[in-house]
From TrEMBL:
<dbReference type="InterPro" id="IPR027417">
    <property type="entry name" value="P-loop_NTPase"/>
</dbReference>
<protein>
    <submittedName>
        <fullName>Macrolide transport system ATP-binding/permease protein</fullName>
    </submittedName>
</protein>
<dbReference type="InterPro" id="IPR003593">
    <property type="entry name" value="AAA+_ATPase"/>
</dbReference>
<dbReference type="GO" id="GO:0016887">
    <property type="term" value="F:ATP hydrolysis activity"/>
</dbReference>
<dbReference type="InterPro" id="IPR017871">
    <property type="entry name" value="ABC_transporter-like_CS"/>
</dbReference>
<dbReference type="InterPro" id="IPR051309">
    <property type="entry name" value="ABCF_ATPase"/>
</dbReference>
<keyword id="KW-0067">ATP-binding</keyword>
<dbReference type="InterPro" id="IPR003439">
    <property type="entry name" value="ABC_transporter-like_ATP-bd"/>
</dbReference>
<dbReference type="GO" id="GO:0005524">
    <property type="term" value="F:ATP binding"/>
</dbReference>
<dbReference type="Pfam" id="PF00005">
    <property type="entry name" value="ABC_tran"/>
</dbReference>
<feature type="domain" description="ABC transporter">
    <location>
        <begin position="289"/>
        <end position="498"/>
    </location>
</feature>
<feature type="domain" description="ABC transporter">
    <location>
        <begin position="4"/>
        <end position="194"/>
    </location>
</feature>
<keyword id="KW-0547">Nucleotide-binding</keyword>
Amino acid sequence: MQLVMIDKLKKYYSDKLVLDIDKFEILENEKIGLVGSNGAGKTTLIKALTRQIEIDEGQIYLTNSYSYITQSEDLDFLLEDNKIKSMLKAPDKFADYLSGGEKVKLRIANAFKEEKKLIIADEPTANLDKESINILESMLKKYNGAMLLVSHDRNFLDVLCNRIVEIDNGKLSVYNGNYTSYTHLKSKEREREKFEFEQYISEKKRLESAKIKKINSRDNIKKAPKRMGNSEARLHKMGDQRGKKNLDGNVKSIQSRIDKLEVKEKPKDIAEIKICIKDGLEIVSKNLIEVNNFTLLAQRKKLLDNVSFKIKRNKKIALLGENGCGKTTLIKEILRNNNSSIRTNPKVKIGYFDQSQEILKEDKSILDNIKVSSSFNETFIRINLNLFGFKGTDVHKKVNLLSGGEKVKVALCKIILDDNNFLVLDEPTNYLDITSLQALEEALRNTEKTMLIVSHDRAFIEKVCDYVIEIKNLKIKEFNGSYREYMESKNNKKLTLACNKKNEEILILENKQSQLISMLCLETNADKKVEYEKEYYDVLAKLKELRE
């Protein structure tokens, strides 16, 4: 049964064709991952499917029995739904006070509230911690309907999808299997395209070279010498004409073979993204921010209890913690700079990336959004936008027409071109494609700027950060080292505690063993002796198990 059917779909923005889909369908129980680079058309396709935007040509059929998990939605009315609150264990607070992860979980709960035949999800793992992603994966695995998932989370797509649909320049290509299968097939496809293109170019060059040789041979056929007699000249001319005719035939034959060659297009180069972060005003002081005896409250809920820590110069800090623990609330308190427990160095200029991209004006163009706060001229701004993949007239696009990943790139470019020396990045990797993510990683590694980064992408913070602050149980834990080293340290502590507990148990059992030996020696009652012997052998078995 068809749940989605697209036929000869075309969608234009101005004169640019952004969707060009001949045929596409989703059947019952299919689990489809929709992938593609930022700006390829994923969000446009989803908006067209869900009738948020009108198409210019073609037809779309979408079942009425579907749920949609969107990147943004009015959430306050959802908090009034008791069924959703019970599914989520949602807190009694307005949407403005929810963390990014809590907002995503609210949208997910709304999608699962009623059993539909199809779930359409646009970046459902954005802002979710690992535990929440695992819960979502489990819910979707148990879901009996069809799914269309837009996600840059490769593991998520691997676990859930049996078909990957790639969108590139508005066109769809379908690959059977999960994301890993897709990357393997895509790699083989690129190798084949490269080989076929090289073979085509080689054969075309060979034929063109042969054609030129034949033309030269024809043109070099000599005319009859003047001293030659008339009869000899006629014979020579006849031979020349036959030779030229044969060579003309050869030239035409070769040209025909060239014309009949199947043209192979050169494989498209993967778009390269380069990000360059300039160092800001140097700060001599060792500490940029000092937090002393600070307690953090939100909606009367305590998030931090009497904590102290420092943000040191040139450190790239990962701020960790579960959804709702207070990471974003802490960042906003630092940005306000009006709390006596938080002292900020007066030379600090903060560049803040908000996970909801509130620094962008939706009705303004990409270029206008950046020009308004940057001291650089338009030429330099355009050069940097080009490095982010916004070329030519793309810079005049309104922000409200951009995909989630494109908005992230504009916000990052805006922050990078602002005059700052301390970057605060709240979930900067959300919605970014792999190429953009790798470019961001490299740029952040190469700058000397101090950073405070919130991200649930563990691979990202491992590559970028050299210091860890974790919020847990209303307290702050600090660690001078990478995320991997921090986790190893935590595991070693757990192992040490486990070893200490084990040694403690062995000591208790050894004491018990000594007591039982004494009791067996002194006891005269036969029944009691049997009881003590049984207990003795039980203790012996436990000791053996612990010592192994």
